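Hi everyone,

Forwarding the result from last night's run.
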Amino acid sequence: MPLWTPDAWHETWRFAAEAHHGQLVPGSQLPYIVHVAAVAMEVGNAIARRLELGQPVAQPDLAIQVALLHDVLEDTSVTLEQLRGRFGDAIAQGVAALSKDPTIAGKQARMQDSLARIQTQPAEVWMVKLGDRITNLQAPPHFWTRQKICAYRAEAGEIHAQLGSACGVLGPRLLDKIAAYAVYEAR
């Protein structure tokens, strides 16, 4: 039995690539789809590692497809209705939970709202948030201030505190990334 459905993976990948076409990873010249692929790779690796450990993921297709689509509502013109029509309600709701609500005032309040909505979703959606933050804990853009770097690391700690228990592979990996990210606070 395959870990996920390759045709669904390809369809979702293509949809995400078209949705993010022309966008760049902030602070770089890389196409944004590189970030999307990195999150999907983190989640895919966690699914495979958990299988090796005898802890299979119940819905690997949900995890991979949500990973590929995790930023389309927040960063593109794709709507929730379009996602629901194309990929079904479970995937649409997972992506919606991962998307910050722009009507909520304040970055911290938007993050807390998103984390609360993620916690109402299956563990596979939690895994995507963990994979997303792991991927984002690379060298910060050169224009970030020390204060922003410290706040981003602290926010990663909050994500781990609230979602880290969802995956015995990604939870510890996020902790390692948070610890390593401290080097950037000395800027």
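The mean pLDDT is 95.

Cheers,
N.
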